[in-house]
Amino acid sequence: MTAIHFTISEVKPEEHDQLLDIWESSVRATHHFLKEENILFFKQTIHEHKYFEMVELACVKDTNDQILGFLGTNADSLEMLFVHADAIGKGVGKALLSYALNTLKVTKVDVNEQNTQAVGFYLHHGFKTVSRSELDGTGKPFPILHMELG
Predict the structure, then answer these.
(1) Fewer CB within 10 Å, N- or C-terminus of the chain?
(2) Where are the domains of the chain?
(3) Given the DSSP bridges, would you call strands 108-112 and 127-133 parallel, antiparallel or unpaired?
(4) Which tens digits make up the pLDDT trace of 93-135?
């Protein structure tokens, strides 16, 4: 397997549309519990409510300057971490989380309980579930696990 070489950088406002495409690719690959109308609802909500402007963004780019994944943080909370479906399992998520933990000093993350791949990822990296919400932040019945570094 060939290693992917990439860099972590800040996200420019003109790259937000790319982030939304990566978000959708990632969600379609990992959020199998969502129906099409849910994905479209969340995509529209992210765009309309300018979620990318509410967090500190960083991304992983490959040697061709293509964004492979991104994260968004607010204080010590990881608010979003998404990796393009084609880059899942290639170290992009691990690089982003390492940056969040070591550089941004993140200690908390909320994750969809039904996204077992993400739950396992965070557990593997030292997070523990401290509480659970039946509804997500939009009031939809997608339980959220509130996790913190153990």
Answers:
(1) N
(2) 6-107
(3) unpaired
(4) 999 999 999 999 999 999 999 999 999 999 999 999 999 999 9
